[in-house]
Amino acid sequence: MSEITTRDTVILGSGCSGLTAAIYAGRSNLKPLVLEGHEPGGQLSITTLVENFPGWPEGIQGPELIENMKKQATRFGAELRMAHLNSIDLSKHPYELTVGKEVIHTRTLIIASGASARWLNLPSEQALIGYGVSSCATCDGFFASGKEIAVIGGGDSAMEEALFLTRFASKVTLINRTERFRASQIMLERAMAHPQIKFISNTTVEEVLGVEEKDVKGLRLKNRVSGEESTLPVSFMFLGIGHIPNAHAFKGILDLDDDGYILTKDNVFVTHEGKVIPGVYACGDIQDRRYRQAITAAGSGCMAALEVEKYLEEHGR
Ligand code: NDP
């Protein structure tokens, strides 16, 4: 295995939080190494128009926003590398990361590996992401104005998305694969009482129609009890079936909550068995199951980088 000299900081993830951390760390002359991971650019890179990121009055395409952040980070000396972590050892300092055949030592670490939306994983769904298939109602709801749409899921996320989307869509059909709802009673009742929301239970989506047109035209559905198939004409499908935090590598190393999100103290400090691990910070969706916005991810990325600076300064760098 080859080895390189000790880094001041390594950032895991190149979404909004990781790149904001890289801009700040770069401007502090820390020459951050950003390991882009398996979803370079994070969730913004699979969105279309982002209209709520401050500073872009006409909106900006998600991939363009990420490209701009990358350029900004590299301008200040960040090194972006298409690689992901094999293993990590936080028991000794400098911390040791294994990336492919390389061992990297670093004084500080920023974990910004994000959370991935859970998808149905149908080929037609994957082909239409950004063309009427979305996992983010806050980002894409506006584009569904006046249209009939579907929301998939039976948990609080699905209820919240369905309720939020009634502001735009003329009709929301919520499709749950069973007749049991995971959602809290209050959210479920609120959604059920809404005149614009219709519920379909015991039903799965077999295909998203419109791949050739590159525009969602409807859903082919199957009732799991009767086996009967039907077509639901909708212009949008929003997934509300949960997120998966990309924190598998930290199981047993850091404190995670029951769903695998990294638990943080004072916004970005990570812990193991309740004790803060010095010089290691988590930011963005990997530690945020509540807000999950580009701007909040960017904000916590900034906080993590400022803590890195403070830590290095306190340790004589
Ligand atoms: P949940 O795990 O609670 O619910 C996921 C839902 O998606 C379930 O109905 C599940 O169905 C369904 N699902 C999962 N995979 C598939 C699939 N492949 N095909 C079809 N359906 C699928 O996730 P949420 O994101 O809703 O919530 C996560 C946590 O966040 C919860 O604790 C929730 O309370 C909280 N939350 C709170 C909010 C609030 O209070 N405002 C808002 C959003 C989330 P099945 O039951 O059959 O597995």
TrEMBL record:
This is Thioredoxin reductase. It catalyses: [thioredoxin]-dithiol + NADP(+) = [thioredoxin]-disulfide + NADPH + H(+). The keyword NADP applies. Keywords: Disulfide bond, FAD, Flavoprotein, NADP, Oxidoreductase, Redox-active center. Gene3D superfamilies: FAD/NAD(P)-binding domain. GO terms for biological process: removal of superoxide radicals. Pfam families: Pyr_redox_2. Residues 8-301 form the FAD/NAD(P)-binding domain. GO terms for molecular function: thioredoxin-disulfide reductase (NADPH) activity. Its cofactor is FAD. PANTHER family: THIOREDOXIN REDUCTASE 1-RELATED-RELATED. Its EC number is 1.8.1.9.
